[in-house]
Write a structure and sequence with these properties.
Elements: E1 2-3, E2 6-10, H1 31-43, E3 48-54, E4 57-62, E5 68-75, E6 82-90, H2 93-98, H3 102-120, E7 125-130
Length: 132
């Protein structure tokens, strides 16, 4: 797996969805953030397939042939208004053998779109990038 730097920020607009806490680990949520990110990615020309609940939060699946791209979204544990997002690529066995290649470029483009979306929203404050 290859991933981008983690983006952390504050916002009080991403509410807990009914029943969401049952689909992830207790106290971990981010479905409304994932829905917002998915819409922003579409606006930036990415195709999005769906949202997936994971133990660690929510993933936005980006439609690509290879590599498979995702955006992970979750709150900071115990905080209702602090958030984390990062993009990652799952590459097939052949791509792993041949090196990073296309996934590095695809991830950089995806990360840039996410960062621009966060920075342009007046509903989001305190964006900081944390190395992975």
């Amino acid at each position: 797996m290859e991933q981008t730097a983690l983006l952390e920020f504050e916002s009080s607009v991403f509410a807990l969805s009914p029943g969401e806490d049952e689909e992830t680990n207790p106290g971990i949520f981010g479905k409304s953030l994932a829905q917002w990110i998915a819409g922003q990615l579409v606006d930036h020309g990415f195709a999005v397939s769906d949202l997936v609940a994971e133990d660690f939060g929510w993933c936005v699946r980006v439609k690509t042939k290879s590599p498979r791209l995702f955006v992970a979204c979750a709150n900071v544990e115990g905080k209702a208004n602090q958030w984390r997002v990062f993009a990652f690529a799952e590459r097939g066995a052949l791509a792993r053998l041949l090196g990073k290649g296309k996934s590095t470029e695809s991830l950089a483009s995806l990360h840039s779109a996410i960062k621009q979306s966060l920075a342009s929203s007046p509903l989001i404050q305190g964006i900081r990038e944390v190395a992975s």
